[in-house]
Amino acid sequence: MQYKIEVKDRSGIFDSVGEGIKKDILDLGIAGVQRVHFSQIFTIEGALSAIQVERICDELLVDKIAQSYSINPEFRAATHNSKLVVEVAYNPGVMDPVEESTLKGIRDLGIEGAAGVKTAKKYLIEGKISEAQLKTICEKLLYNKLIQHIVKPGASDAHAQEAGYQFSLACVELLKADDKELTRLSKQGQLFLNLTEMRAIKDYFKKIGRNPTDCELETVAQTWSEHCYHKTFRGKIKYTEKHLTPNTKHLTPKTKIIDSLLKSTIMKVTKELNKPWCVSVFKDNSGVIKFDDKYNICFKVETHNHPSALEPFGGANTGIGGVIRDPMGTGLGAKPILNTDVFCFAPPEYPFSKLPAGALHPKRVMKGVVSGVRDYGNKMGIPTVNGAVLFHDDFVGNPLVYCGTVGIMPKDKSFKKTNIGDLVVVVGGRTGRDGIHGATFSSGELTHESEKVSGGAVQIGNPIQEKKMLDTILLARDKNLYSAITDCGAGGLSSAVGEMGAEMGARVDLDKVPLKYTGLSYMEIWISESQERMVLSVPPKDIDELIKLFASENVEATVIGEFTDTKKLELYYKDNLVCELGMNFLHEGHPKITKEAVFSLQRHREPKINCTKDQTKNLIKLLSHYDIASKEWIIRQYDHEVQGGSVLKPLTGIVNDGPSDASINKPVLNSDKGIIVSNGINFRFGFIDPYWMAASCIDEALRQIICVGGSLKEVAILDNFCWGNPDKPDRLGGLVRAAYGCYDAAKGFGVPFISGKDSLYNEYAVNGKSLSIPGTILISAISVMDDVKHAVSMYAKHPDDLIYIVGETYDELGGTHYYDLSAGVGNNVPKVDVKKAKRMFNQLSKATEAGLVKAMHDCSDGGLGVACAEMAFSGGLGMELFLTEVPYKGKELRNDFILFSESNSRFIVEVERRNQNKFEQLLKNIPFGIIGCVSKSKKFNIYGLDSKPCVGSDIDTLKESWLKPLRW
Amino acid sequence: MLKPKVCVLRTAGTNCDKETAFAFARAGAEAEFVHINRLVSGEEKLGDYHILALSGGFSYGDDIAAGKILANELKTKLSGDLKEFIRAGKLIIGICNGFQIMVKAGLLPGNKEMKQEVSLINNDSAKFEARWVYLKPSGKCIWTKNITGLIYLPVAHGEGKFIAKDNAAIERLKENGQIVFQYCDESGKLAGYPDNPNGSAENIAGICDETGRVFGLMPHPERHVNSQQHPRWSAAKIKKEEGDGFQIFKNGVEYAKKNI
To answer: Can you give the CATH number for the domain in which A85 is found?
Structure first.
C-alpha cells in the first residue's frame, strides 16, 4: 500500500516558509500573489494498515501543537478559485535525506511494515498569476529539474523502482582506433582526455595485447583528470612573457620551459623555508602543522564550482561535505574544528534578460549556496568562522565556491601507512548513481548543455550520515583499529583505492559494495561519487572489532577487498575480472603534456574622475558596494560558536555586527593557545597583473592575522587557483604569473604553503562562445597564536583615543573598488614591498603583544575611508580624521586617491594617548601618521589636504548604507 | 557525593556534547558520553547517573522536525527509565536541540502521560540564526538559583519559536513558576525581533517542569562558561573568569551533590 500524507500548519500558526516564498516571488518581479501556503508531503510505502498510518502521523510526522494533516488528500493540480497547487518531489535515484531517519522513527514505534518513505513539498499559491508566471516561479524558485520534478495529478512515481542489473562485460575497441576515433571515444565517454593521453592509453593496451574494458578506460580517465592529477600544475609549460613590467623579479624576455609549475613555485617556497613546524605538506589530504606538544592541526580549502553552478544547494552542500572529509582523511583522521567559505557570484540584481542560456540567476545561486553551506556546516557541528563574498558580472555562468576546513589530531596520529594484506573497508553512506563523472566533469568547461550531459554529477549531501561516520572514525582511530584512511571524493572508490594501493596493489570485489538501490553496473559502483563515504585499510586482526564498533553507532562498514603485493589494480564483479591495470601505468604513465602559456600586460582604460570637494557620497557608495557591504545576512545563518572555542567571532562590535578581519578559535578548551584563520582574495587586481594579485592576496591574508593580534611566527598558507581553460595560452599565462607572485611574496614573508588546490576550466560556453571567469586566487592563512589573551578586535573602543595609519599610501587605484564605481579598472595596481612589510608586521605584533593596541583594522577594500568608517560605526563612536597626516607617496595630490587607494601593507590602529610613546617607539623607521582620533559624538568627519571637510557624515548613516545592500 | 555523574546523551547528529561535558566537568561533575543505543540495549543504565544532559545539535538531521525522531525514540524506548529518573529526584537539562527533544517527548512542561503540550517551531524569520541574546530569569528552576540579573548567551537555531497549545497552558506555566528565561533587551524589557530572535510566545526562551529539576532552554549556556567567549571580552576588560552560563552548570552540580 502507498499512503500519501499532507502535513500543514494549523490556522493561526505563522507559515514562515510560505511567507519566505512569497517574498522571493515578489523579488522575481511578479506581483499578484496574495499568499503562499506550504505543506510537507510524506509518501509511505509498505504493508501498513490505516490505523498504523494514523499512529505514524499522530506520534511521528505531525506536531499536533502546530500542525494538522490529511491522509491521501485529493490532488488538485488544476487552477481553481485562483489557487494554484505545485508539488515538488525528488527524481528517482536522488537520495532523499529524510527517508532513513523517518523509517527509523516508524520502527521505533514498533511498526515494522514500512518499506520506503519519500518526501515532497507542496505549495498552494493564492492570487492572480498567469500560466507563464507560474512556470517562472516553478523554474526559478521551487524546483531544480536536475534533482526534482513537479508531480503530475494522479502520478504515483514516488517509489519507482529501478530495474535490476544484468552483468555483461563491456570492452572498448581501442587498438583499432585511429586518432579521430580516439577523440570521439573520449568525448562520447565524457572522459575529458586529449589525443596525446588517449594515444598513451592505446599504447599501453597494445603492449599488453588487448582492448580495455569500459571500467579500465574510466579508471584511467578519473586518475588522470585535471581534478585528480593536476596535470597543468605538474606538467610542462612553455611560458612566454610578452611585455615586461618593472618591479618583478621574473622578467623572462625569452620563452622558457617550466617543468612542473607546482614544484618550481608553490612547493619550492616550502622546501626552501624548511620550517620545523611543517609536519606533512603536499602529501596528504590536507597540510599539517604543529599546534602544541600534543596536537597537530591541518587545513585544506577546496572548490565546488561546477556543481554549484548547476545545483547551488546540492553543489555547495557536497562541497563543504567533501572538504570536511579532507582533514578526516588526513593522517589517521583529524577532528574538523572550523570551516571557512569564500564565494564569488555575479551581482544579485543581474538582469534576467542578460542571463546566458542554461545559467541560473546569481541571486538564486547565492541563496542556494549559502543554504547548502548552512545545512552541512551547522549539522556537522563545525563552526563557520570566516569568509568573504565578492561579485562580478563574469561569474554569471560559473560562480566560485571555496570551502575550507581545519582539523586537529593527536601528534601520533598524523601519519598513515597501508600494509600488504590489509583489508579494504568502505564506511559510511551507501553507493548510488549520484555524482557519476564529477571529477572529469569539473575538468572541462561548463556549457549550456552541461545540465543535460552532466546532470548526474550533481549530488545532495546527508550531513548526519557524515557526522555519525566522523564520530565513529575518531573512536576507531583512538583504538588503533586501522592503518590508513582516505576520503572518497572525486573519482569515488577509483581514486581512493587507487591512491591507497598505489605502492603495492589492490583487489576489490565490486559486488560487495553496499548500494542504495539495485541497478548499478560494476563501473558505476567503481566511479560513483556518492557522498559520505571513506575508505579504511584495516589489518585483518582488527576487522571484527572495527565492524562491531561501527555497527554500535549505526554506521555501515563493509570489507570490499584487500591490499595486495601485485602492483596491480584488480577489480572483480561476481568473480568476473572487470579491470586489471598496472599501478605504475595508472600513476606514472601520464604523458607529460607541454602546454603553451603567454602573458602580455593589458593596457586598461584609466577612468577619468574629477576629485570633487565632497567625498561623502563616494564613501557611502563604497560602503554599499556588494564586495564591501555587510555579509551579516549570511554570517548569522552559520553557527559560528559551536564547539565552544570561538574567541574572536566573525561579527564584532558594540552591537556585534562589525566585520572582523580574521577569526580566533581555541581548539583545546582548557588551553589558551589559539588558531587564527584568514583569507586574502582580490580578483580585480588580477585584471591588471595576476602577479600583484597573488602578492596582494598574501599580504592581505597576513595583514588580517596581524590585525587580530597574531604574528608571522608560525603562519602557513594555502593557494587556491580558480582559472579559465588552461589549454588556452592567454589563460595559462596569467596563471603562471600568479604562481610567480605566490613564490616571491611567500618566500619574502617567510610563510610556507602547506597545501593547495587548483580548479581550472572555469568557463561558461554558450553556442561556442566561451566566457572565462576572472582568474582568481584565494590565499588562506592559518596561524598558531600562543595566547589568545592578546586578541584585538577591529571596532573603535574609546573616545579620544588616537587613530594611526601604519604603512604608506600610493596612488595605486588600479583594480580598486573606487574605480569600479565608475566601471573602470585602471593600470596602477597595488604592489607589495615584502621586505618593508615584513618588518612592519613584526613590529605591530610586538605592539599587540604588549597590549598597546586597542583596535586594529585591515586597510583594504575601499581604502582608508572604508576601514575607518567600519571601525567607527562598529564601535558606535565617531571620528575626526585629517588626510594631511597620511604618509602619501602618490604623484597626484588628491583627497579621493588618499581615501580610497587600496595600497597594500596598511593598518588603521587605535591607541590610547598614554601609550603613544611606547607605540611609536616600536614603529621606528616605519612610516605612520596620527590621522586623528575617536570622538564621543556620532559625527564622522574627514578633513582633506586643504584642511577643509571632505567627508562629513554620521555613523548611523554610514552604517545603514553598509548594512542595507545584502540585508535580505 | 563527591562528583555527580552526568550522562551526556549522544546519537547521530549530536554536536554540542563535548563543550557541554566540558562545562559540567569544570563545575565539578564527572561527565560521560553515552550513545543512546547503549541505553536502549541495556549495556548502560540511566539510573547510574545523577544528571541527564541532552545537548545541542541536529539529532537525526532534525528530519521531520527538530528533535522529533530522538524524542520519539526516548518515548518509545526509554520512557520508563526517564520517569523513574525524574521520580528519583534527579536532574535533566536540555539545551537547544535538547530542549526541542524534551518538549516533543513530553518531558517539558511535563505531565504523567508525557503528552506534548508546547512546541518549538520555525523561527518567524524562516531561517537559522546565530546571535547573542539577553535573558531575564524567573520561576522556580533549581538550575537558575542565584541568577538574579540578566544574563547574556548565544542562540543558534532555526526552530526555536515557543508556542503552546492554548493560552491556558501558558497561564499554567506562569502560575507554576515554570517560565525560567525570557528574551529581553539590554535593559530587561521584553522586546521584539531581534531581541526575541524567533518570535516566541511571551518571549519564552526556557521552561522547567513542576519540580524545577527538569529544565530546557534554546540559548547555549555551555558557549558562555568563560569570559573569553563573550563577544566583546577583549574590549570590555571583563574581570571575572566565568561566563554568564556557567552558574547554570554549577547549580545543577551543587544541587546533585546536596540532594541526590
So the answer is: 3.30.1280.10
For residues A815 and A829, what is the distance between their CA atoms, to the nearest angstrom? Answer: 6
C-alpha cell at A237: 609549460
CB contact under 8 A, A109 and B72: yes
Element (H, E) at A318: helix A312-328
Question: Coil, strand or helix: which one is A407?
Answer: strand
Annotation marks residue A227 as catalytic: yes
Domain that holds residue A36: 2-150
pLDDT averages per 10-residue partition of chain A, 968 residues: 93 89 87 92 94 96 95 64 84 82 95 93 92 89 85 62 79 93 90 92 94 93 85 92 62 78 96 97 95 98 91 91 96 97 96 88 94 95 96 95 97 96 96 70 61 57 94 98 93 91 95 89 90 96 98 97 96 96 92 91 91 96 98 96 96 96 96 97 97 98 98 97 94 96 98 94 84 95 96 96 98 97 95 98 98 97 98 98 97 96 98 98 97 97 97 98 95
CB contact under 8 A, B232 and A644: no
**CATH fold for the domain made of B5-259:** Rossmann fold (3.40.50)
Tally of domains in chain A: 2
Q: Are A807 and A700 in contact (CB under 8 A)?
A: no
From residue A751, alpha-carbon distances to A260, A283, A507, B245 in Å are 21, 18, 42, 39
Evaluate the CA torsion angle A356, A361, A365, A368 in order and state its sign: negative
Residue type, A653: G
* Total length of chain A: 968
Contact call for residues B253 and B29 (beta carbons, < 8 A): yes
Alpha helices in A437-508 (DSSP H): 438-441, 450-453, 463-478, 492-500
Domains of chain B by residue range: 5-259
Put simply, the answer to whether B132 touches A19 (Cβ < 8 Å) is no
For the domain that residue A879 is a member of, what is the CATH number?
A: 3.90.650.10
| Nearest-by-Cβ selection for B58 from A379, A471, A654 | A379
* Chain position carrying cell 523554474: A139
**Cell digits of residue A744:** 616571491
Which of A98, A119, A150 delimits the end of a domain?
A150
* Cβ neighbours of B236 (radius 10 Å): 11
Q: Which residue type is seen at A233?
A: F
- The Cα B56–Cα B16 span in angstroms is 5
The 10 Å CB-count burial string (b at 16+, else e) for A273-293 is: eebeebbbbbebbbbbbbbee
Question: Which residues, numbered 363 to 382 in chain A, qualify as contacts with chain B under a Cβ-Cβ cut-off of 8 Å?
Answer: 374, 378-381
Q: Is residue A705 part of a domain?
A: no
Q: In Å, how far from its chain's centre is CA A757?
A: 11
Other beta carbons within 10 Å of A893? 14
Angle at B257 between CA B252 and CA B260, to 5 degrees: 95
Phi, psi dihedral angles at A352 (to 5 degrees): -55, -35
A23 within domain boundaries: yes
Q: Which residues pair with B162 in a beta bridge?
A: B120
Query: What is the distance between the alpha carbons of residues A868 and A494, in angstroms, rounded to a whole number?
Result: 52
Pairing mode, strands A400-410 and A335-345:
antiparallel
Size of interface A-B (CB pairs under 8 A): 179
CA torsion B222-B226-B231-B237 (nearest 10°) is 160
* Residue A939: inside a domain: yes
Of the candidates A150, A180, A195, which is a domain's last residue? A150
Indicate whether A942 belongs to any domain: yes
